[in-house]
Specification:
7-stranded parallel beta sheet, single chain, alpha/beta, globular
């Protein structure tokens, strides 16, 4: 399908899943706006290279997703937002009694509240254009839970709930809102964790991947950023115009258990 003439804003997209989603949207012809909290020359160069590779307009706009005003300003600075992908997120692991209030507040702000603020800013643009797609990158942890991830699990469950409300409020319009719930995805961040885990447990790479990282993922395979991106493109297609308010799992069977 082609998304030519559409502008996609993807939060948290200068690496990992967000960048993978941006690449697939650009491949489909959408102009893209990349985002993160940094404002480095390499961030802008990344956007330029992406635009040249796929023949689209690609820009980088810095915004701190922990701040409501910055979330809304990102969409406003983009100038148009036909497709909004809420991907920004951080993680922290600790038992509830030891989970600091600062970490809790940051995770809730970046992983959940940012999606509310960007959506609030984008919906008027989508309504004016008569078309829009909101795709929230939630998680398998938006549908199930793990110990020591209280803020992350709470935030991702909240994103799934926000997805449903957004879908209901736009159900009579050509606007949809859906959540994608990945399990473990192969990203540079995950890859960087493997050597330390191998050393900590004196295990082979294969055992670390299968027995620790993918313990709850029955396929014992990572999802790819391309798969998450391809699912996003599908949700933006006419084929998916009656898919709204739902959560699509890309988790190798995790949430089927």
């Amino acid at each position: 399908m082609t998304l030519q003439g559409k502008t996609a804003v993807i939060t948290g997209s200068n690496s990992g899943i967000g960048l993978g989603v941006a690449r697939e949207l650009a491949r489909a012809g959408a102009d893209v706006v990349l985002n993160s909290f940094t404002d480095r020359d390499e961030d802008h160069a990344l956007a330029s290279a992406l635009g040249e590779e796929f023949g689209v307009t690609a820009r980088y706009i810095q915004a701190d997703m922990s701040k409501a005003e910055a979330c809304r300003a990102l969409v406003e600075k983009a100038g148009a937002c036909d497709i909004l992908v809420n991907n920004a997120g951080i993680q922290h692991v600790a038992p509830i009694p030891e989970f600091s209030a600062e970490k809790w507040d940051a995770i809730i702000a970046i992983n959940m509240s940012s999606a509310f603020h960007t959506t609030a800013a984008a919906l008027p643009m989508m309504r004016k254009a008569g078309w829009g797609r909101v795709v929230n990158i939630a998680s398998a942890h938006g549908l199930t839970a793990s110990p020591f991830k209280s803020a992350y699990v709470a935030a991702k469950h909240g994103v799934v709930g926000l997805t449903k409300v957004t879908a209901l409020e736009t159900a009579r319009e050509d606007i949809t809102c859906n959540a994608i719930c990945p399990g473990y995805v192969a990203t540079p961040l995950i890859e960087a964790q493997i050597p330390d885990t191998m050393a900590k447990y004196n295990m082979s790479r294969e055992d670390v991947v299968e027995k620790i990282l993918l313990e709850r993922q029955p396929s014992k395979q990572f999802a790819s950023v391309e798969q998450v991106g391809g699912t996003t493109v599908f949700l933006c297609s006419d084929t998916a115009s009656q898919i709204t308010g739902t959560s699509i799992s890309i988790d190798g069977g995790w949430t089927a258990l």
